[in-house]
Amino acid sequence: MCSGGGSDNYAAQARADETARQDRIKTGTADVNKKFEGFNDAFYGQRQQEYKNYAEPQLRDQLKGESSSLAFNLARSGLTDSSERSRNEGELQKQFSAGKAEIANAALDQSNQARQRTEQNRSELLAQLNATGDAASVGSQAVNRAGLLASQQSFSPIGHMFSATTGLLGNAARAGYYDNNAPGMNAYTGLFRGNSNNSGASRTVKT
Q: What are residue 66's phi and psi, to 5 degrees?
Protein backbone atom coordinates (compact mmCIF):
# COMPACT_ATOMS: atom_id res chain seq x y z
CA MET A 1 0.00 0.00 0.00
CA CYS A 2 2.77 2.40 0.97
CA SER A 3 4.75 1.52 -2.10
CA GLY A 4 1.74 2.14 -4.32
CA GLY A 5 0.98 5.44 -2.63
CA GLY A 6 4.56 6.59 -3.15
CA SER A 7 4.40 5.80 -6.84
CA ASP A 8 1.17 7.69 -7.18
CA ASN A 9 2.66 10.71 -5.43
CA TYR A 10 5.75 10.57 -7.66
CA ALA A 11 3.61 10.39 -10.80
CA ALA A 12 1.47 13.27 -9.62
CA GLN A 13 4.53 15.36 -8.87
CA ALA A 14 5.99 14.53 -12.28
CA ARG A 15 2.77 15.62 -13.96
CA ALA A 16 2.73 18.83 -11.96
CA ASP A 17 6.36 19.54 -12.83
CA GLU A 18 5.71 18.94 -16.52
CA THR A 19 2.64 21.17 -16.43
CA ALA A 20 4.71 23.92 -14.81
CA ARG A 21 7.46 23.38 -17.40
CA GLN A 22 5.00 23.66 -20.27
CA ASP A 23 3.59 26.84 -18.74
CA ARG A 24 7.11 28.31 -18.60
CA ILE A 25 7.72 27.31 -22.20
CA LYS A 26 4.44 28.89 -23.27
CA THR A 27 5.22 32.10 -21.39
CA GLY A 28 8.81 32.12 -22.65
CA THR A 29 7.73 31.57 -26.26
CA ALA A 30 5.37 34.52 -26.08
CA ASP A 31 8.14 36.62 -24.54
CA VAL A 32 10.65 35.72 -27.28
CA ASN A 33 8.11 36.44 -30.00
CA LYS A 34 7.31 39.80 -28.41
CA LYS A 35 10.99 40.78 -28.31
CA PHE A 36 11.28 39.88 -32.02
CA GLU A 37 8.02 41.48 -33.14
CA GLY A 38 9.84 44.53 -34.53
CA PHE A 39 11.48 42.38 -37.18
CA ASN A 40 8.77 42.70 -39.79
CA ASP A 41 8.50 43.52 -43.49
CA ALA A 42 9.03 47.22 -42.77
CA PHE A 43 12.30 46.46 -40.95
CA TYR A 44 13.64 44.31 -43.77
CA GLY A 45 12.54 46.89 -46.33
CA GLN A 46 14.50 49.53 -44.42
CA ARG A 47 17.58 47.29 -44.36
CA GLN A 48 17.23 46.94 -48.14
CA GLN A 49 17.04 50.72 -48.57
CA GLU A 50 20.00 51.26 -46.26
CA TYR A 51 22.17 49.19 -48.57
CA LYS A 52 21.03 51.16 -51.62
CA ASN A 53 21.77 54.42 -49.81
CA TYR A 54 25.25 53.09 -49.06
CA ALA A 55 26.12 51.63 -52.45
CA GLU A 56 24.51 53.90 -55.05
CA PRO A 57 26.61 57.00 -54.24
CA GLN A 58 29.71 54.87 -54.79
CA LEU A 59 28.39 53.85 -58.18
CA ARG A 60 27.71 57.47 -59.11
CA ASP A 61 31.24 58.43 -58.07
CA GLN A 62 32.60 55.67 -60.29
CA LEU A 63 30.52 56.93 -63.21
CA LYS A 64 31.84 60.43 -62.67
CA GLY A 65 35.42 59.17 -62.73
CA GLU A 66 34.86 57.04 -65.82
CA SER A 67 33.13 59.94 -67.59
CA SER A 68 36.06 62.23 -66.85
CA SER A 69 38.54 59.66 -68.13
CA LEU A 70 36.47 59.14 -71.26
CA ALA A 71 36.31 62.87 -71.94
CA PHE A 72 40.08 63.15 -71.51
CA ASN A 73 40.84 60.26 -73.85
CA LEU A 74 38.38 61.42 -76.49
CA ALA A 75 39.75 64.95 -76.39
CA ARG A 76 43.37 63.94 -76.71
CA SER A 77 42.40 61.73 -79.65
CA GLY A 78 40.40 64.46 -81.37
CA LEU A 79 37.15 62.57 -80.95
CA THR A 80 35.25 64.91 -78.64
CA ASP A 81 32.53 65.53 -81.23
CA SER A 82 32.31 62.11 -82.81
CA SER A 83 30.23 58.96 -82.97
CA GLU A 84 32.94 57.34 -80.84
CA ARG A 85 32.02 59.69 -78.03
CA SER A 86 28.31 58.87 -78.35
CA ARG A 87 29.03 55.15 -78.42
CA ASN A 88 31.19 55.26 -75.32
CA GLU A 89 28.84 57.53 -73.42
CA GLY A 90 25.99 55.17 -74.27
CA GLU A 91 28.05 52.23 -73.02
CA LEU A 92 28.81 54.04 -69.76
CA GLN A 93 25.11 54.71 -69.20
CA LYS A 94 24.28 51.11 -70.02
CA GLN A 95 26.79 49.85 -67.49
CA PHE A 96 25.59 52.41 -64.95
CA SER A 97 22.07 51.01 -65.29
CA ALA A 98 23.42 47.47 -64.99
CA GLY A 99 25.30 48.53 -61.87
CA LYS A 100 22.13 49.95 -60.32
CA ALA A 101 20.33 46.69 -61.04
CA GLU A 102 23.17 44.75 -59.45
CA ILE A 103 23.01 46.95 -56.38
CA ALA A 104 19.23 46.46 -56.19
CA ASN A 105 19.75 42.70 -56.21
CA ALA A 106 22.45 42.97 -53.56
CA ALA A 107 20.13 45.12 -51.44
CA LEU A 108 17.44 42.44 -51.66
CA ASP A 109 20.03 39.85 -50.64
CA GLN A 110 20.93 41.97 -47.61
CA SER A 111 17.26 42.08 -46.65
CA ASN A 112 16.84 38.33 -47.08
CA GLN A 113 20.01 37.61 -45.11
CA ALA A 114 18.78 39.81 -42.27
CA ARG A 115 15.48 37.91 -42.27
CA GLN A 116 17.30 34.58 -42.20
CA ARG A 117 19.54 35.67 -39.31
CA THR A 118 16.51 36.79 -37.34
CA GLU A 119 14.63 33.54 -37.84
CA GLN A 120 17.73 31.51 -37.05
CA ASN A 121 18.20 33.34 -33.75
CA ARG A 122 14.54 33.02 -32.87
CA SER A 123 14.57 29.28 -33.65
CA GLU A 124 17.71 28.74 -31.57
CA LEU A 125 16.19 30.52 -28.59
CA LEU A 126 12.93 28.58 -28.80
CA ALA A 127 14.82 25.30 -29.12
CA GLN A 128 16.82 26.17 -26.02
CA LEU A 129 13.64 27.12 -24.20
CA ASN A 130 11.99 23.81 -25.05
CA ALA A 131 15.09 21.88 -23.97
CA THR A 132 15.61 23.66 -20.64
CA GLY A 133 12.31 25.27 -19.74
CA ASP A 134 14.34 28.23 -18.45
CA ALA A 135 12.22 31.14 -19.63
CA ALA A 136 14.17 33.74 -17.66
CA SER A 137 17.54 32.87 -19.21
CA VAL A 138 16.13 32.63 -22.71
CA GLY A 139 14.30 35.92 -22.28
CA SER A 140 17.55 37.63 -21.31
CA GLN A 141 19.32 36.20 -24.33
CA ALA A 142 16.45 37.29 -26.57
CA VAL A 143 16.96 40.91 -25.48
CA ASN A 144 20.65 40.77 -26.36
CA ARG A 145 20.18 39.02 -29.68
CA ALA A 146 17.36 41.29 -30.79
CA GLY A 147 19.49 44.31 -29.98
CA LEU A 148 22.37 43.03 -32.09
CA LEU A 149 20.10 42.16 -35.00
CA ALA A 150 18.48 45.57 -34.94
CA SER A 151 21.78 47.48 -34.86
CA GLN A 152 23.06 49.28 -37.96
CA GLN A 153 24.48 46.78 -40.42
CA SER A 154 27.97 47.41 -41.74
CA PHE A 155 28.40 46.91 -45.49
CA SER A 156 31.43 46.23 -47.62
CA PRO A 157 32.35 48.75 -50.33
CA ILE A 158 31.15 47.81 -53.79
CA GLY A 159 33.60 46.61 -56.41
CA HIS A 160 34.40 48.54 -59.55
CA MET A 161 31.31 48.42 -61.76
CA PHE A 162 32.88 49.76 -64.94
CA SER A 163 35.75 47.35 -65.49
CA ALA A 164 34.59 46.60 -69.04
CA THR A 165 35.06 50.25 -70.00
CA THR A 166 38.84 50.00 -69.70
CA GLY A 167 39.13 48.62 -73.20
CA LEU A 168 36.61 51.11 -74.55
CA LEU A 169 38.54 54.05 -73.15
CA GLY A 170 41.72 52.64 -74.59
CA ASN A 171 40.02 52.16 -77.95
CA ALA A 172 38.77 55.73 -77.80
CA ALA A 173 42.33 56.96 -77.35
CA ARG A 174 43.81 54.68 -79.99
CA ALA A 175 41.10 55.49 -82.55
CA GLY A 176 42.58 58.95 -83.03
CA TYR A 177 46.02 57.54 -83.78
CA TYR A 178 44.75 55.55 -86.75
CA ASP A 179 42.48 58.22 -88.17
CA ASN A 180 44.42 60.36 -90.65
CA ASN A 181 41.79 63.09 -90.41
CA ALA A 182 41.99 63.34 -86.62
CA PRO A 183 44.29 65.95 -85.09
CA GLY A 184 45.57 63.43 -82.56
CA MET A 185 47.33 64.41 -79.35
CA ASN A 186 49.44 67.19 -80.87
CA ALA A 187 46.41 69.41 -81.32
CA TYR A 188 45.71 69.15 -77.59
CA THR A 189 49.21 69.68 -76.22
CA GLY A 190 48.34 73.13 -74.91
CA LEU A 191 45.14 71.89 -73.31
CA PHE A 192 46.86 69.40 -71.07
CA ARG A 193 49.61 71.80 -70.15
CA GLY A 194 47.11 74.16 -68.63
CA ASN A 195 46.67 76.51 -71.63
CA SER A 196 43.67 78.64 -70.66
CA ASN A 197 42.80 79.29 -74.31
CA ASN A 198 41.86 75.63 -74.69
CA SER A 199 40.15 75.21 -71.33
CA GLY A 200 36.81 74.49 -72.91
CA ALA A 201 37.97 71.85 -75.39
CA SER A 202 37.26 68.94 -73.09
CA ARG A 203 33.81 68.28 -71.68
CA THR A 204 32.75 65.68 -69.18
CA VAL A 205 29.69 63.53 -69.61
CA LYS A 206 26.59 64.70 -67.81
CA THR A 207 25.32 62.16 -65.33
A: -65, -40
Can you list the alpha helix ranges (DSSP code H) found in the chain? 2-35, 41-76, 83-132, 135-150, 165-177
DSSP state of 191: G
Domain boundaries, the chain: 2-198
- pLDDT tens for each residue of 126-161: 999 999 999 999 999 999 999 999 998 899 999 999
pTM (predicted TM-score): 0.71
Q: Which of 197, 192, 195, 193 has the alpha carbon at shortest distance from 71?
A: 192
Q: Phi-psi region for residue 184, left (φ > 0), alpha (ψ -120 to 50) or beta?
A: left
Give the single-character DSSP code of 178: T
At 106-125, the pLDDT tens digits run: 999 999 999 999 999 999 99
> Cβ(116)–Cβ(47) under 8 Å?
no
For 103, 123, 124, 198, 200, the CA distances from 67, given in Å and listed in that order, are: 20, 49, 50, 19, 16
What's the CA dihedral at 66, 71, 72, 77 to 10 degrees?
Answer: 130
Contact in structure between 65 and 173 (CB atoms under 8 Å): no
